[in-house]
Specification:
By secondary structure, this protein is of the alpha+beta class. 40% of the residues lie in helices and 24% in strands. The longest helix is centred in the C-terminal third of the chain and has 48 residues, at 216-263. The radius of gyration is 39 Å and the shape is rod-shaped.
Length: 282
């Protein structure tokens, strides 16, 4: 078989098959690049400010479309109900969040409790100062805009001396610390305020990463070209193998006829020639 492959005829055929396979592979790569370039981004209109009541309902989880959505609402921060979250990163720096208890006007005289992350401070002293300023403000409705995010799993405080210390924003944990919320509905989410109060830095809350849908038709074409490239090499191999088998059969037949002619023994010609001669004798 190897000697057959090394013949000039089949070496030339192999070069042609390899060139053909390379062309098919190049076409496959081109189709794959087209699939990536023509991929469409699944845009979520998160940067369009929508009413909170239109995006989320109290007592239930956020839908995938609601996560990261900018929402607007009229809420009344409860003075003295602010909480601190420590070890919160903002632009790569660890610091403190100030989270307020805000009673949102849900219409019809109904209010719903919502956690609002008001801003970030680089030190606990700065966060405490901002909390004191918020606590001194009169209780009054405010128009707020924030990015809506799902609440986080509460974590056991590492400092046993401070059982209320928090590093995660768990709504259930905050609900237990708030005042005047018995029997009140609560959003199982929190909003990151886009305009922080004085003394606090805006919390970095970028929009969700957009997903991209690939062009599956181009990917299918790319796979086809790769299959064609492999088939070109396989076809060359089959042609060589068939030619080798044909030569072996002819060689065996010639050897059998030579032995039969030397001994005078009729040869069983499987090609049909011997049977044709026998028919003529009959």
């Amino acid at each position: 078989m190897l000697q057959m492959m090394l013949r000039p005829r089949w070496i030339g055929a192999l070069i042609f098959a390899l060139a053909l396979a390379a062309g098919f592979a190049a076409l496959g790569q081109w189709q794959l690049e087209r699939a990536i370039e023509s991929g469409t981004a699944v845009e979520a209109p998160t940067e369009t400010v929508l009413p909170l009541s239109q995006v989320a309902k109290p007592g239930g989880p956020l839908t995938s479309k609601a996560v990261g959505q900018l929402v607007s609402f009229t809420g009344t921060p409860v003075p003295g109900d602010d909480q601190l979250l420590y070890d919160r990163l903002n632009y790569g720096k660890a610091g403190w969040w100030v989270v307020s208890h805000v009673n949102v006007d849900a219409g019809g005289g109904r209010t719903v409790a919502l956690a609002v992350a008001r801003g970030w401070a680089p030190s606990e002293a700065a966060a405490q100062k901002a909390m004191a300023t918020l606590a001194a403000q009169p209780e009054a409705p405010q128009r707020m805009v924030g990015r809506l995010l799902p609440d986080e799993q509460p974590q056991v405080p590492a400092d046993k001396k401070n059982p209320t210390a928090m590093t995660s924003l768990g709504v259930g944990q905050l609900y237990n610390l708030w005042t005047g919320v018995d029997g009140m509905d609560v959003y199982n989410a929190y909003a990151v305020e886009q305009t922080p109060p004085a003394g606090l830095v805006k919390i970095d809350s970028p929009p969700p990463i957009q997903q991209t849908e690939l062009n599956w038709l181009n990917i299918f074409y790319a796979a086809e070209w790769i299959i064609f490239a492999g088939f070109a090499i396989f076809l060359w191999y089959r042609l060589v193998r068939d030619a080798k088998q044909r030569e072996d059969e002819e060689r065996e037949l010639a050897a059998a006829e030579a032995v039969g002619g030397a001994t005078g023994t009729p040869v069983d010609d499987t090609s049909g020639g011997a049977r044709a001669r026998a028919g003529k004798v009959e």
